[in-house]
Amino acid sequence: MIEVARIYRLDNNGAALKAFADVAINGLLVKGLRIITGKNDNLFVSMPKAQGKDGKWYETVKLLDSEAKEQLQKVVLDAYNA
């Protein structure tokens, strides 16, 4: 079960990053998901990332199941739009 624990909306005046979200997934709290405007003004959810020593950004949480990924995206965007 996926629940949105918190959404922090940003006032970025047209910037791509719209909000940060924390979600609870079966008793595990995942902090730092990002809601971003992509191409054609479509919103999507980006997983938390950390910068490695090589300067590249790596996801710290990765959903391996595409069905779980779609469900997470729907729950977070529904909460953002509510």
Lay out the secondary structure.
Elements (H helix, E strand, L loop, with lengths): L1 E8 L7 E9 L2 E10 L5 E4 L2 E3 L5 E3 L6 H16 L1
Antiparallel strand pairs: 1-2, 2-3, 3-4, 5-6
Report on this model:
There is one protein chain. The chain has 82 residues and is an alpha+beta fold. The chain has one domain (2-66): Arylsulfatase, C-terminal domain (2-Layer Sandwich), CATH 3.30.1120.40. The chain is 20% helix and 45% strand. The chain has one helix at residues 66-81; strands spanning 2-9, 17-25, 28-37, 43-46, 49-51, 57-59. The strands form 2 sheets. The chain has a 4-stranded antiparallel β-sheet, covered by helices on one side. The longest helix has 16 residues, at 66-81. The protein is globular and about 35 Å long.
Q: How confident overall, as mean pLDDT?
A: 92
Q: Please provide the count of β strands.
A: 6
Shape label: globular
Share of β-strand residues: over 45%
Task: Note the run of SSEs as H and E.
Answer: EEEEEEH
Q: Note the quaternary state here.
A: single chain
CATH A-level architecture? 2-Layer Sandwich
Might you state the CATH topology name?
A: Arylsulfatase, C-terminal domain
| Main sheet characteristics | 4 strands, antiparallel
Question: What is the number of helical segments per DSSP (H or I, 4+ residues)?
Answer: 1
Structural class estimated from helices and strands: alpha+beta
Radius of gyration, in Å, reads 13 Å
Report the uncertain regions: none
